[in-house]
Amino acid sequence: MSGIQLEAGEKVRVDLTSPLTSLTFPFLELILITGLCWMGIGYLDRPDLATTIPTDLRNAVVVIWLLLVTWRFILPLARSRRRRFMVTDRRVLVRAGTFKARTDSIPLRQIHHVDRRRNRIALALGGFDRPLHFKDVPKAKKAAAVINQSIGPARYS
């Protein structure tokens, strides 16, 4: 579970991460970047330019391509795979998509109300004036239903 530790006897009810469809635009950028960079490399490799253009220029274009692919595709892929929203029988665990993000644990007994709007979930917690908002939660309707089922009837403080 890479960084998320469950307590003894704790059961996972919902475990969600970003869907691969969230990488549609980064994938299209990958295709565009690869096409443009390698067309440039093909142009630099022409036989009539082989003597006038240094090979360091071609290698620089390859390095630029690699950096762009890493920045525009590989990093978003890694971030989307790290994002996590998990509901167990005792608590809600949330981890952002950044590399140094810590996992937040919210006990179910502190949750008074769950609200969902599209792919956002708002948790009303005891002791907080405002609800905690989590955006871009995949299958937010299912997650909100499981949390509502877990906390039982609406509790008011």
UniProtKB/TrEMBL annotation:
Residues 81-122 form the YdbS-like PH domain. It holds the Pfam family bPH_2. Keywords: Membrane, Transmembrane, Transmembrane helix. The chain crosses the membrane at residues 20-41, 61-78. This is Bacterial membrane flanked domain protein.
